[in-house]
């Protein structure tokens, strides 16, 4: 064993008359461990909320929305064939979307109607969030409606609603908006208020009829294998359109929700910085323990120098001391955070309001890379904090150190 490491280990467990220094060492270890635990758990919880929110965003959003120009809308079947050749694309769901009014008895509300095919189930996760009933199909003139919107106008499964289109029927006199009856065949609840309070789904053919588009569509919902590779897929889509002489505009799921995810990212960064200060504060305790150790071992330092120990070896003794505190704190922190994450994942230790967050327990998503960064950061802080006390000890005068009582 390295002689400096051996002496450092012996110094960590001081004699009984020097128990105060030992006590401060253990407090430093506990401080580092608590900082590691707090940071790993906080990051895991933030990741859990972000993952949960991302899944709910995909309930009504496809990975990429492609809006066709008015000239290209008539060529959608050819475009569909070409886009299906892009290997990163797993599903293509044509859609028509527009605003209108839904009415049930004396109650009415503004709504966004989206005409889709059953491919929408592959392009989005909407099927997972249908509370009652089923998704639209070709057998019935049905509609799938958001839970908040259903509550607002007082409808339930099997009820009839009327959709009032903004498109005017000029064949009648006086000109009247179009009225279309649908049966509620499903109610979805994504947990995102904007979707649940505004959106309804109908068959694509009915939406084309409502907005008088004939056989044209307005765009596609495109599902991709890797949802974070949207930039590369968007480039491929533009290349396909360019080669066909067609035009369109893409909008990724991240771009559509950029403000929300940017806010979450900022909160995560701020929380990490604040909690990292716990480790920094713990390092002050470690500096104090090293200074106390330096004072208590003044004569020892003088003797070691007398028998030929260099300043470098003296520094190493106290650097190893700081490193030991960091390693012990990190190991203890990893063990405690692992236990805490297991409990949070499997038991409702912290209950949260299910009607607000649509989950009964705190979501946890442990990421190894982030935890490794926390561990490395904690050890580096402990090493940096031990530099000054070790230099101070190494620079002590031999004669004064030996005479020290």
3D structure, described in words:
The chain has 405 residues and is an alpha+beta fold. It has 2 domains: 198 residues, no CATH class; 195 residues, no CATH class. Strands 2-3-8-5-7-6 form a 6-stranded mixed beta barrel. It is elongated and about 105 Å long.
Summarize the structure.
This protein has 16 helices and ten strands.
Termini distance? 30 Å
| Helix fraction by DSSP (H/I, runs of at least 4) | 40-55%
Class from secondary-structure proportions:
alpha+beta
Poorly predicted regions: none
Number of helices: 16
Beta-strand fraction estimate: 15-25%
- Major sheet details: 6 strands, mixed, barrel
The arrangement of helices and strands along the chain is HHEHEEHEEHEEHEHEHEHHHHHHHH
Specify the overall morphology.
elongated
Summed over residues and divided by their number, the pLDDT gives a mean of 80
Number of strands: 10
Q: From the alpha-carbon coordinates, what is the Rg to the nearest angstrom?
A: 33 Å
Task: Tell me the strand order in the biggest sheet.
Answer: 2-3-8-5-7-6
